[in-house]
Amino acid sequence: MVNKMSQKTLLITGGSGYLGRQLTAKAVDSFRVYTTYTRHPGQIKAGQPLPLDLTRRDDVLRLVSTLSPQAIIHTAAINPGQGDDEMMRQVNALGSRYVAEAATAVGARLVYISSDMVHDGKNAPYADDALPSPLSGYGRSKAEAEAAVAEIEPAAAIVRTSLIYGLEEMDRGTKGFVARLRTGQPLVLFSDSIRQPVWVETLAEALLRLAGPNADFAGLLNVAGRQALSREEFGRRMLQWWQIDPGELLQSGRAADISDTIPLDLRLTVTQAEQLLQQELFGVDEILQAQRDLRPSLKPNGQN
C-alpha cells in the first residue's frame, strides 16, 4: 500500500471537465491530488476539489502558494461554444499566465494543455515546434497562453492535442451531435476537416508521465492519436460505438463551404512523443478494436 504522506502533491486545474475527470481518477494512484473547478464540483471523480476563478490572479497565486504542489497539470479552459472570444482570452490566455506565474513562484513542474487549433490547417502535418497561426478566437487564446507559459516558465511542457474522446463516457462533441439528432434536426459533419482524435486514457497517461518526478521535457510536444480522420469519419465511429443510429439526419458537408475560420488539415507529427514517453499513441480504430476484443496488448500505456 502506498504511503499517502510520501506522495508528491499534484494540482490539476479543471477537474470537473472531460479530461480533468479522467485525469484525476488516474492520478490518485501516484499523487496526492488537488483539483480546481468553477461551477461543477459534483462532476469531479477524485482528489480534493477546490473552487478557483482563473481570471483572478491573486486567487490563483494564493491557492498555489498554499498547496505548494510539486507539479501542476493545467487542463482548465473555455472551449468553443462555451463563451465568447473575450471570455476565452480571459480564462485561456490570462488564466494560463497566472498559473505559470504561480508555478514558477513555488517551483512546481508545469504541464499545460494546448490544442491543434493553434494552427491554420494549411501546412500539415505540423511538427511539435511549428509556429502557431490560429484562425479562431479559441485558437488565438490558446496560442497566447502557449507564449505566456513558455516565457514565464521555460521548463514547462506544453502539450498540443486534438479531439479527446472516451469509450466509457461520451465526449462533449458527440453529446452535442446526439442532442441535435434527438430533436430531429439534420447533423452535418465535415468531410474535409482532418484531426487526430486521442483516447482520453492515452492522453491522461501521457500527461501524468510528463508531470512525474523524473520528467524534465521542456517545450512543445504533440500528443494525439496517430490516425488522421475527417470530422465526419470520427463522428460516425463515435455514434456507432454509442449505438446511435442517425439515419438520414446525418449528412456530409464541407467546412470550406461554411467558414474560413475552420482549419481544414490539423494533422500532427507524434513520433517525438511516442519516443519520449515510451508510449504508443494509438489511433481511433486501434482503440475501438482493442476495446471490442479486450486485448491487453493495447492498453493506453503500451504495457502488457
Fold and architecture overview:
The protein is α/β, with parallel strands linked by helices. It has a single domain, classed as 3-Layer(aba) Sandwich (Rossmann fold), CATH 3.40.50. The chain is 36% helix and 17% strand. The protein contains 9 helices and 13 strands. The chain has helices at 18-27, 57-67, 85-106, 137-152, 172-182, 200-211, 231-241, 271-277, 284-293, and strands at 8-13, 31-37, 48-51, 71-74, 109-115, 157-161, 164-165, 187-190, 194-195, 198-199, 219-222, 229-230, 250-253. The strands form 4 sheets. A 7-stranded parallel sheet has the order 3-2-1-4-5-6-11, with helices on both faces. A two-stranded parallel sheet has the order 7-10. Helix 1 (18-27) links the parallel strand 1 and strand 2. The longest helix has 22 residues, at 85-106. It is globular. The relative contact order is 0.13.
Throw out a few tags for this protein:
alpha/beta, Rossmann fold, globular, 7-stranded parallel sheet, disordered C terminus, 304 residues, 36% helix, two-stranded parallel ribbon, single chain, 17% strand
Uncertain segments: 297-304
Q: Would you identify the CATH H-level superfamily? A: NAD(P)-binding Rossmann-like Domain
The name of the CATH topology is Rossmann fold
Helix content: 25-40%
Which structural class do the helices and strands define?
alpha/beta
Strand content: 15-25%
Average pLDDT level: 93
The domain tally reads 1
Specify Rg, calculated over alpha carbons.
19 Å
Number of strands: 13
